[in-house]
């Protein structure tokens, strides 16, 4: 696949519906230009003038303002991983593999202050090295940053301070959750219909202990990288470069078999592929993309990607879902439930053996090509087993069935509110956009009803229902949604 990824000329020219039709519904990547984030607070406050450009096609004009980041956020903590160590994903299946989140060992959490101290020393280290060898750590094509020789490190950095001679990536920092009043950026309108974070916001507003989200900040030196994966729970993601450049290598979902070895392990680094293990890798369709400073990448669901930071980079990214990919997420949740149930019958593992990292869900990434079709209604025989499967799904950062139900219901309530507002509109206010929004609500409702119907027929609903924190009655909810759908249709008729 050589078709390049489109860079939109403007971040606002396309209507929301056109963006959906051209990219989200067909599940195709796209890049928004720098103007999409030019006004963001983070773009100005977290960066300094780098005093140079590196060429007409590559605009690196800003650099990480390490002092500022430390002063603003020094006390917060975030996970780091060691990019000099490459591991591969574990076998397909969920239970007891003890795998790390995305193939690189997650070392531990550090304070932002400690990481800033590392970044300063890393810069000096890299400068010293390039003076002594006459080479630059950065190359234009991303051929930098290859991991160290296998076995040269055991992947468990515990030293304090963090060692400047190692390439350490700060990932999955919940910056927005940690600093909710700071408003570092604004959600681009195309990504604003976000069912996943909407659900977590609702959970957090009801219970402080359940404050969570899928909004992240990444900070990495040149050469840091993220191994091949697709995003957690089959979500979409978007990723914006506050400063610096990234190289992306994308593989469409159908390339999965070419990226997976006979044992179901996913390859990690496209720069060093063992062709005896991955004989078809060469033929895998792929698209390479250089994401320049300020640009924002839309990552479609289930597309595999590897990301290499070509310079020091700060990026913001969200995992998210809406009516376009929620069915895919539901399908994956069912398959994960099947995998867990199958694994449970093979081995008994405890919850703490399982990695709980979220951003790059190992579950999704390593699923075996031979994973059986979901028979989720049949497999969980007892209430206890059904509960265990649900607990394990949650512990792996997958959506358990109850969470999927709740997520859908948050959305139904939003559609309900919207339908009240629509009913109050004067005829002159009924624009084509309003009609498009109403169509989306109806189609979202249909999708949600399909998922809720599935859940209501599952063994899990039958077996776990009594143990779930608040009782639910899906049959009742479905009948209320039918009324809501009718109401939206009648409204639409009255607009004509
Ligand atoms: O920038 C990175 O290192 C990884 C980003 C990524 O995988 C994503 O946004 O989905
Ligand atoms: Fe990703």
TrEMBL record:
<protein>
    <submittedName>
        <fullName>Jumonji domain containing 4</fullName>
    </submittedName>
</protein>
<feature type="region of interest" description="Disordered">
    <location>
        <begin position="124"/>
        <end position="158"/>
    </location>
</feature>
<dbReference type="InterPro" id="IPR050910">
    <property type="entry name" value="JMJD6_ArgDemeth/LysHydrox"/>
</dbReference>
<feature type="compositionally biased region" description="Basic and acidic residues">
    <location>
        <begin position="138"/>
        <end position="155"/>
    </location>
</feature>
<dbReference type="GO" id="GO:0043565">
    <property type="term" value="F:sequence-specific DNA binding"/>
</dbReference>
<dbReference type="GO" id="GO:0016706">
    <property type="term" value="F:2-oxoglutarate-dependent dioxygenase activity"/>
</dbReference>
<dbReference type="InterPro" id="IPR003347">
    <property type="entry name" value="JmjC_dom"/>
</dbReference>
<dbReference type="GO" id="GO:0005634">
    <property type="term" value="C:nucleus"/>
</dbReference>
<dbReference type="InterPro" id="IPR041667">
    <property type="entry name" value="Cupin_8"/>
</dbReference>
<feature type="domain" description="JmjC">
    <location>
        <begin position="176"/>
        <end position="337"/>
    </location>
</feature>
<dbReference type="Pfam" id="PF13621">
    <property type="entry name" value="Cupin_8"/>
</dbReference>
<dbReference type="GO" id="GO:0045905">
    <property type="term" value="P:positive regulation of translational termination"/>
</dbReference>
<dbReference type="GO" id="GO:0005737">
    <property type="term" value="C:cytoplasm"/>
</dbReference>
């Amino acid at each position: 696949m050589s078709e390049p990824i489109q860079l939109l000329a403007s971040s606002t020219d396309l209507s929301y519906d056109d963006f959906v039709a051209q990219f989200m519904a067909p599940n195709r990547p796209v890049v928004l230009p720098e103007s999409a984030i030019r006004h963001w607070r983070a773009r100005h406050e977290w960066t300094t003038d780098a005093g140079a450009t590196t060429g007409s096609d590559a605009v690196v004009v800003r650099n990480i303002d390490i002092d500022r980041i430390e002063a603003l956020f020094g006390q917060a903590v975030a996970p780091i991983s060691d990019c000099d160590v490459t591991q591969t994903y574990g076998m397909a299946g969920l239970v007891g593999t003890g795998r790390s989140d995305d193939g690189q060992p997650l070392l531990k959490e550090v304070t932002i202050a400690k990481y800033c101290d590392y970044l300063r020393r890393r810069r000096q280290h890299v400068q010293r090295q390039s003076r002594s060898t006459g080479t630059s750590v950065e190359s234009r094509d991303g051929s930098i940053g290859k991991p160290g020789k296998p076995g040269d490190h055991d992947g468990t950095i515990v030293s304090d301070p963090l060692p400047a001679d190692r390439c350490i990536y700060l990932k999955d920092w919940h910056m927005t959750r940690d600093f909710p009043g700071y408003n570092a950026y604004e959600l681009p309108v195309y990504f604003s219909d976000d069912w996943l974070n909407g659900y977590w916001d609702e959970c957090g507003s009801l219970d402080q202990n359940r404050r969570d989200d899928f909004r992240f900040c990444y900070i990495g030196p040149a050469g840091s990288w993220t191994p091949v994966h697709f995003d957690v729970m089959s979500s979409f993601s978007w990723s914006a470069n506050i400063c610096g450049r990234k190289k992306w290598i994308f593989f469409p979902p159908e390339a999965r078999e070419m990226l997976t070895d006979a044992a179901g392990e996913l390859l990690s680094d496209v720069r060093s592929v063992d062709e005896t293990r991955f004989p078809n890798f060469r033929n895998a369709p792929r698209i390479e993309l250089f994401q320049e400073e300020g640009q924002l990448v839309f990552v479609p669901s289930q597309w595999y990607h590897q990301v290499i930071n070509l310079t020091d980079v700060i990026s913001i990214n969200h995992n998210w879902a809406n009516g376009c990919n929620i069915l895919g997420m539901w399908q994956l949740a069912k398959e994960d439930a099947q995998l867990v149930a199958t694994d449970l019958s093979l081995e008994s593992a405890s919850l703490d053996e399982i990695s709980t990292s979220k951003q790059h869900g190992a579950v999704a990434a390593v699923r075996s090509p031979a994973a059986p079709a979901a028979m989720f209604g049949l497999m969980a025989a007892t209430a206890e087993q059904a509960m265990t499967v649900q607990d394990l799904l949650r512990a792996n950062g997958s959506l358990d069935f109850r969470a999927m139900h709740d997520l859908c219901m948050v959305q139904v309530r939003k559609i309900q509110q919207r339908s009240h507002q629509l009913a109050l509109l004067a005829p002159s206010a009924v624009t084509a956009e309003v009609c498009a929004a109403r169509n989306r609500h109806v189609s979202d409702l249909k999708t949600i009803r399909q998922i809720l119907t599935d859940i209501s027929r599952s063994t899990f609903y039958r077996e776990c229902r009594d143990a779930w924190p608040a009782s639910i009655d899906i049959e009742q909810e479905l009948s209320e949604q039918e009324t809501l759908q009718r109401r939206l249709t009648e409204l639409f008729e009255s607009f004509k």
